[in-house]
């Protein structure tokens, strides 16, 4: 009797051992993104941003007015974010492509093309809110860790940056992540006292301009355009009764003019 219990226990132990071994060998969550602390991600982001600016030959916009306009939009949103562990960094790069994308460590890059395309500061705020959502929900690092593996991603190697840029440009977030980011953005915009449905206005514009080649690299467009349903669910987002929009204090056309002046002086 006693020996049979011991034998059964031994068998159970072996079974559990095997299951444990299989799980460790084939991790259910191969990206193990939780292993990358936010602090580490921010450090990594600094390195990648520096290498990317050099390797892609990106030039930061010279106009302080443009840079500070983007920063103040970002700040309005940041103040509405609760308990964010990230320190945001906004980089405006000279590029006619209409684009905004996010590198690890809450580095949000916005092109001058996007600033020219946005009809108001609020429209740009809607795009930045969407990018912030990908940061806060850790979509950026999850996607990269899935493609590269956490050890390659955290190597900080300059050769990884090329791969990183390729991944950011070619493989998008999945449909669920996009929808989550849109919903997060609506709530964030509401908390920041910016009309959330501005995001739908922006999507409508993108839908009309879908064939514009300058939009090819835009993360919001390239992944899953599907604008009709995105417009619909953003419009279904109704802010609370006490919601009151407070305009972003800046003269948007003046900011856009700065870009033109800069082009002309070159
Ligand atoms: Zn997105």
Give a concise summary.
This protein has 266 residues and is mainly alpha-helical. The chain has helices at 2-25, 38-55, 64-80, 112-117, 121-136, 139-148, 150-153, 158-170, 175-191, 198-208, 219-222, 227-235, 252-265; strands spanning 89-93, 100-103, 107-111.
So how many helices?
Answer: 13
Kindly estimate the percentage of residues that lie in beta strands according to DSSP: 5-15%
Low-confidence stretches: 23-31
How many distinct folded domains? 2
- Return Rg in Å: 22 Å
Query: How far is it from the N-terminal to the C-terminal residue, by CA?
Result: 91 Å
Small ligands present: zinc ion
The ordered H/E elements are HHHEEEHHHHHHHHHH
**Class from helix and strand fractions:** mainly alpha
Number of extended strands: 3
The overall pLDDT average reads 86
Helix content: 55-70%
The biggest beta sheet reads: 3 strands, mixed
The global form is globular
Task: Tell me the strand order in the biggest sheet.
Answer: 1-3-2
């Amino acid at each position: 009797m006693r020996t049979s219990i011991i034998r059964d226990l031994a068998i159970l132990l072996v079974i559990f051992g095997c299951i444990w071994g299989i799980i460790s060998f084939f991790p259910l969550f191969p990206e193990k993104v939780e292993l990358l602390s936010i602090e580490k991600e921010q450090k990594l982001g600094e390195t990648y941003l520096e290498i990317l600016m050099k390797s892609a030959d990106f030039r930061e916009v010279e106009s302080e007015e443009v840079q500070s306009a983007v920063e103040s939009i970002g700040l309005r949103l940041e103040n509405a974010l609760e308990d964010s562990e990230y320190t945001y960094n906004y980089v405006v790069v000279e590029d006619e492509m209409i684009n905004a994308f996010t590198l690890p460590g809450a580095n949000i890059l916005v092109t001058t093309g996007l600033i020219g395309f946005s009809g108001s500061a609020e429209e740009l705020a809607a795009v930045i809110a969407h990018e912030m959502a990908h940061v806060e929900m850790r979509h950026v690092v999850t996607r990269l860790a899935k493609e590269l593996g956490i050890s390659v991603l955290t190597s900080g190697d300059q050769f990884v940056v090329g791969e990183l840029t390729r991944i950011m440009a070619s493989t998008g977030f999945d449909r669920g992540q996009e929808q989550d980011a849109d919903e997060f953005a609506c709530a964030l915009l509401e908390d920041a006292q910016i009309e959330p449905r501005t995001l739908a206005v922006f999507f409508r514009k993108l839908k009309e301009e879908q064939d514009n080649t300058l939009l090819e690299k835009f993360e919001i467009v390239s992944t899953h355009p599907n604008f009709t349903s995105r417009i619909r669910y953003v419009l279904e987002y109704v802010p609370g009764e006490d919601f009151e929009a407070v305009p972003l204090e800046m003269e948007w056309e003046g900011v856009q003019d700065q870009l033109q002046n800069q082009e002309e002086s070159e």
